[in-house]
Amino acid sequence: CRAQFGPVDKLVCAAGKLQMGTAAELTTEQWRQTFAVNTEGVWFSCQQVLDEMQQRRKGAIVVVSSNAATTPRASMSAYAASKAAVTQFARCLALEMAEFGVRVNIVSPGSTDTPMQRAMWTQGSSAQTVINGSLEQYRLGIPLRKIASPLEIAQGVVFLLSDQASHITLHDLRIDGGATLDY
């Protein structure tokens, strides 16, 4: 593939597996699968391009995490823990790669209109519950009063990959309508 398309200058690691359930309910297999997709997959993808980015002293990596990495969510312990791990991995990677001119940033979406989000709405939640917040779930609402579109998330990723962000590294761009209150 590289012979046909050339070296990899930009990498986006965007994968998400949401396994709902309390910490007591989750099986070892569910926990491991969540980490395999959300954390190990990012590490493996990055490993495939780091050497050549270092040698060329050029590159940009964006890791898509989640605002759940910093804001606890009931019945989402595996997802939140895996996204916290991948966020910290990206920060460490950013420090390691900076001397080579390679930028590493994070995009942390909040609730976004995706099949994964819609599946949550069939399990007793709804878009309006997410927007308004829920005292029962200890969940803040979304101050902008809307669910994000995938395009809004993609625009943040594209910006961080672009030359317009040439002096930005180690940044966590939260695109969540204010849901984390900038926590």
UniProtKB/TrEMBL annotation:
* GO annotation terms (biological process): siderophore biosynthetic process
Return one GO MF term.
2,3-dihydro-2,3-dihydroxybenzoate dehydrogenase activity
Keyword vocabulary terms for this entry: Oxidoreductase
Question: What InterPro entries does the record tag this protein with?
Answer: DHB_DH (IPR003560), NAD(P)-bd_dom_sf (IPR036291), Sc_DH/Rdtase_CS (IPR020904), SDR_fam (IPR002347)
The region annotated as signal peptide is none
**A Pfam family reported for this protein in Swiss-Prot or TrEMBL:** adh_short_C2
The keyword Protease belongs to this UniProt entry's keyword annotation: no
Q: Which PROSITE patterns match?
A: ADH_SHORT
Give the family from UniProt: Belongs to the short-chain dehydrogenases/reductases (SDR) family.
Protein name in the entry = SDR family oxidoreductase
Q: What is the lineage of its organism?
A: Bacteria, Pseudomonadati, Pseudomonadota, Betaproteobacteria, Burkholderiales
